[in-house]
Amino acid sequence: MNLRKFYFLPVSFFLVAGLSAGVGLSVKFGSVQIENLLPGEIYNTREIVNLPFSVTNSGQEESVGNMTIVIPKKKECKKDFEPIEDITWVQLSDDVIDLRPGAIKVVDIIIRVPDEPEYYDRKFEVYIEAVARAKKGNVATGVLSRLYFTTVPTLEEKEKRKKQKREREQILANLNYDFLPGKVLLFEVKPGKRYDVGEKAGKTLKIVNMNDEKYKYRLTSVSSKDANQSAASGYEAVPDPGWLTFEKDIFDLDENTILPVKVFLKIPKEKEHYGKRYQFFIRVDLLEQKIPVSIYAYVMVQMEK
Question: What is the DSSP letter of 243?
Answer without folding.
Answer: G
